[in-house]
Amino acid sequence: MRVALIQQRFHGDIKSTISRSEELIEEAAEGGASLVVLQELHQSEYFCQYEDTKYFEYAEKFEEDVKRWGEVAKRHEVVLVSSLFERRTAGLYHNTAVVFEKDGTVAGKYRKMHIPDDPGFYEKFYFTPGDLGFEPIDTSVGRLGVLICWDQWYPEAARIMALKGAEMLIYPTAIGWFDSDDEDEKMRQLFSWINIQRSHSIANGIPLLCCNRVGFENDPSGTLEGIRFWGNSFVCGAQGELTAQADSESETILYADIDKGATGRVRDIWPFLRDRRIDAYDDILKRYCL
Hints:
The chain is α+β, with helices and mostly antiparallel strands. The protein has one domain: Carbon-nitrogen hydrolase (Nitrilase/N-carbamoyl-D-aminoacid amidohydrolase, 4-Layer Sandwich). 24% of the residues lie in helices and 28% in strands. The protein has 5 helices and 17 strands. It has a 6-stranded mixed sheet. It has a 6-stranded mixed sheet with strand order 8-9-10-12-15-16, with helices on one face. The protein has a 3-stranded antiparallel sheet with strand order 11-14-13, with helices on one face. A hairpin with a 5-residue loop joins strand 15 and strand 16. The model has no long low-confidence stretch (mean pLDDT 97).
């Protein structure tokens, strides 16, 4: 199965950015992709660099956004993983991945569960933690374990998706460097980011797709220098092997071919699920054990 990850920069305004996304999706479909993944909050700038209530207006068009991307999926006959700002009611918003079937219908959605609150990533101001749990989404290309960005650091999320039958893990993402970080620190961050996710693939014996944004985005408040999103979108197979990886600067379509039969073969020789000591894991439900 051919997949495509759309690694994209923000093009100055929402209309231009959406237009460019649609062009890239069309190209990906023509390139043979049956599954297309967009990055986190792909319609707009990454607005969480500071706190401003004006950005809640972006979520007002959630239903309109769902309709638009459903039409795009239908037009190009692809399963499409989007990442949208959802207004549930006044004062209640989610960072939500909506998955569309090839006929444009909504196959399912996932609301981001782990919400960061760090300098330049003030997401707790904007997003309520998800309440849909870790539930895979059934589509014509397989059962997708869709998670979002900060979720990618948590092995519990990946494991639960796998235990519920997810055939691959998918992470729309927005993560980057501060230019003031030295090169060694940047490489340590990137190394950790890639390898924590590869470990989820290895531990669960399933492929993993991670789609990150790229390009520099200024902090409009002037408090910080802004974020240089580091791209490096990648796909790995059921043993964590990298099968495709983008660079840190280019807007690109990253293609990869997924071997859907690999999970069974890998789990037969690496039977991690068989040897789990579920009788001994009560402590995992505690915040800290000392």
